[in-house]
Amino acid sequence: VLNLTPCVLPVIPIKVLTLSQHAGTPGRTLYLGCWMALGVIAFWLAIGLPVAFLSSVTDPSRVFGIWWITLGIGVIIAVMGVGIMGAFTISLPQKVYFINPKADSAKGSFVFGIMTAVLGLPCFGFVAGALLAGTATLSPAVIMVIFGSMGVGMALPYFIMAFNPKLVEKIPRTGPASELVKQVMGLLLLAASMYFIGAGIGALLKSDPVKAAALPAWVK
User: Fold this and answer.
1) N or C: where does the chain have the smaller number of CB atoms within 10 Å of the terminal CB?
2) C-beta of residue 102 within 8 angstroms of C-beta of residue 108
3) Residue 60's pLDDT is what?
4) Rounded to an integer, what distance in angstroms lies between the CA atom of residue 135 and that of residue 20?
């Protein structure tokens, strides 16, 4: 789904055509495409590693009992939700845009894939930020599966079109539909934030049954 956002969708055909030009032959295009896809996956795994490490040295099951942590997670996810809906933007340093690895070798294609993911952060960085907060309550294995799956999902179009570059012509153009994807993801993040905020408030008032009973249904 992240591939449908305005920062990523227009870039897909450009990246695939660049890969194809460097490769020269269909077989080598597929070879370099696999390395590029691995670069995208590696980017997402690298994001998940710090959270998985933090989860491994703490007890995730106890996080929901600490009201300010759970409430804080909900607030972070809410901020990411309104951000992806257009309240504010994520800007990368200008130097990042001048990094242009050549996708003419396995190593170059791997870095090419990493940079492809990095340059999409202004759009999907909000989702990544929400995931970093939300998955802190899960086990390390589940965290890595989630982030690895995000990487596979984002890398899949590049792998498929490296196998058949002519599919580039089938990619839809960016437009209102891409903006709609961002709005829907924002609403989903806000819904997730309500869950964490509700859990935080519930944990805070756990010692006061009277106030806890008066809480709205969504908090309970």
Assistant:
1) C
2) yes
3) 65
4) 37
